[in-house]
Amino acid sequence: GQLVESGGGSVQAGGSLRLSCAASRLTVNSYCMAWFRQAPGKEREGVGIIKMGGSTKYAEFVKDRFTISRADAANTLYLQMNYLKPEDTATYYCAASNSDWTCPRLRADDFRYWGQGTQVSISY
Prior knowledge:
Helix content: under 10%
Structural class: mainly beta
Radius of gyration: 13 Å
Number of helices: 0
Number of strands: 11
């Protein structure tokens, strides 16, 4: 499987961005899909997941600000980010796991396929 992220950029605090993750050689609704992020000097952390059945779960630090969705016809995963903060600055990655059971743990080791990442920078 191949995952390609896009949509990153630089915005001011309070703004919005929508990230996309186009999948090929895997079908997004047949995997548990996730977004992770990694800030400079920090460990990669899970942002949220969408299970095969469509249910979602988010890390506490993005609840009520970020929304994960997918478009099955386009085989694409999305991350809508609103009310962005400077601390959201990071490289954002999409990932795919073949287990709905383990993916809610948001542990990177549980995810088999990864994109190359897209940079998000939030300024004051």
